[in-house]
Amino acid sequence: MNTELEIKNLVKEKYAAIAEQSQTQNATSCCGATSSCCGDEVYNIMADDYTKLEGYNAEADLGLGCGLPTEFAKIKEGDIVIDLGSGAGNDAFIARKFVGENGKVLGIDFTEAMINKARENADKLKLNNVEFRLGDIDDMPVTSNYANVIVSNCVLNLVPNKYKVISEIFRVLKPGGHFSISDVVLEGELPAKWKNVAELYAGCVSGAIQKQVYLEIIEQAGFKNVAIQKDKPIIIPDDILANYLSAEEIQQYKNGKVKISSITVYAEKPAKDERGCCEPGSGCC
Fold first, then answer.
1. Are 180 and 23 in contact (CB under 8 A)?
2. Residue 45 belongs to a domain
3. pLDDT (tens digit per residue) in 5-41
4. Contact indicator for 106, 89 with CB cutoff of 8 Å
5. Which residues contact 170 (CB under 8 A, 6 or more apart)?
6. Which of 40, 131, 135, 256 gives a 20 to 30 Å CA spacing to 117?
7. pLDDT digits (tens, 9 = 90+) for 225-276
8. Residue 54 · residue 94 · CB < 8 Å
9. Is residue 279, in this structure, part of any structural domain at all?
10. 63/48 Cα distance (integer angstroms)
């Protein structure tokens, strides 16, 4: 990986291709990425089962998530909810069931093909309070203090500047608002050769950061009551590992102390900003 722009362009290219695939095709590729690296068992290495959640829409489920953030997000009727990296609209449509007719759900995605797919799905469902907006989640096209709740599913690890996107979440949430975000994190170091593999970045692995650092970034941004709502291990099958590591390296990896996990993190924006540095949204905090 090189510059932030190059990484973003890589992710945009990969996910634009995913938007044109069927759910079956996505399920047989690395975390949905358009690569031929995976075998039959990889479809479930990250994704959780959404099918039993009210509001689930099969056409919006591309199998790209790594958790169920809407299940933990404490969304109430009448809330304004933002879904970061909304894809084809899966989490947004489930959030809509919680907010009801008097609330609103806004999905943000920087891949135009995904936005188009989500809008098509919303039109089919005839939902007038679900909107999908093209934009970067680290520079959201949203006014400050807008949302009651933010959710995101396996997306923040794809953003090169984690500090910036977490700061944007703080800016956009109303005082007293909160988020529930599912993401991939690490404990221990991945094999060095994985760092520059495009498929592993777009596939949610090499873009992940250390779990403790992830939580520290959230706290440094000013959030309170940070808690892990769910923590599940991600086991990468041997047929995927074999594309990047020799048999000896695979054994070393398995014997090592590397742990890849999907965590769902909850945190609250204080009702009053007591950081003492500036007004929210001015960019100096």
1. no
2. yes
3. 766 776 667 766 666 765 555 444 444 433 333 333 3
4. no
5. 221, 222, 223, 269, 280, 285
6. 40
7. 999 999 999 888 888 888 878 898 888 888 888 898 999 999 999 998 665 5
8. yes
9. no
10. 8
Helix (H, G, I), strand (E, B) or coil at 104: strand
Q: What is the pLDDT of residue 41?
A: 32
d(CA 65, CA 71): 13
Domain count, the chain: 1
pLDDT in tens, 213-227: 999 999 999 999 999
pTM of the model: 0.83
Using CA atoms, how far residue 105 sits from 10, 83, 101, 121, in Å, is 28, 7, 10, 14
Domain containing 241 — which CATH number? Answer: 3.40.50.150
Q: What is the DSSP letter of 41?
A: G
Residue 193 lies in a domain: yes
Q: How far is CA 7 from the centre of its chain?
A: 16
Q: Which two tokens stand for residue 173?
A: 């949430």
Compute how many other C-beta atoms are within 10 angstroms of the C-beta atom of residue 69: 30
Cα–Cα distance for residue pair 276/280, rounded to 1 Å? 10
The residue to which tokens 């290219």 are assigned: 13
